[in-house]
Amino acid sequence: MKLEVIEDNGKIFRFNLKGVSPAYANALRRAAMVFVKTFAIDKITVYENTSAIFDEYIAHRIGLIPITTPPKGFKDDDVILFTLDVTGPKTVYSGELESKEREIKAANERIPIIKLAAEQHLRLEGKAVMGNAKTHAKFQPALISYNQDPKEKDSYEFIVESFGQMPAREIINKAFEVIKEELKEIQSETKKL
């Protein structure tokens, strides 16, 4: 197997992967999109909402905001608290969600959450947890596609577009780790037979 980097700017990672089967190329794509773990706001408690929008709609929008996920220092069962306390008139953006952890925040600060009219108030608390897209799409870290080189049957050009939770290259590195762990588990189970 040989990996050749074409482009790597943090958000987009393009590379050629040679010497693998179509099944392996697809396994890598699926592992990166579905099994790489990221933070997302999962539970929201609304303390005050005098806007014209239902609590559930606001919670749904906040839940889909990509949250930065540091490569180290956090465990799968960590819960990160976010707060929001705003009064209109204004458009409320994702960057106004305040985190108790400096490294964990909205990946894009300009995602609109709600437009508040004069004197409308929104106060809530959200809990970000670690998860993967197998449980919910809000944990998916990227869009990933690949094309098979028509001249070479074992050569694929991958394009990874990160949503901002982590750099695109890191998503692929974590996907390789996921595949490696899955293979270890399968090997362990086959030894029992």
Structural write-up:
- With 193 residues, this protein is of the alpha+beta class.
- It has 2 domains: 2-36 and 141-192, Gyrase A, domain 2; 39-132, RNA Polymerase Alpha Subunit, Chain A, domain 2, CATH 2.170.120.12.
- 25% of the residues lie in helices and 37% in strands.
- The chain has 3 helices and 10 strands.
- A hairpin with a 6-residue loop joins β9 and β10 (155-162).
- α1 crosses α3.
- The longest helix has 25 residues, at 168-192.
- The model has no long low-confidence stretch (mean pLDDT 95).
Tally of extended strands? 10
Bin the strand percentage.
35-45%
Multimerization state: single chain
Can you tell me the CATH topology of the largest domain?
RNA Polymerase Alpha Subunit, Chain A, domain 2
Q: Strand-and-helix sequence, N→C?
A: EEHEHEEEEEEEH
Assign the CATH class of the largest domain: Mainly Beta
The number of helical elements comes to 3
The side-by-side strand order for the widest beta sheet comes to 1-2-10-9
Chain-averaged pLDDT: 95
Bulk shape: elongated
Number of domains: 2
Please give the radius of gyration in angstroms. 20 Å
Low-confidence stretches: none
CATH architectural category of the largest domain: Beta Complex
Helix content: 10-25%
Can you say what the CATH homologous superfamily of the largest domain is?
DNA-directed RNA polymerase, insert domain
Distance between the termini: 30 Å
Largest sheet: 4 strands, antiparallel
- Backbone structural class: alpha+beta
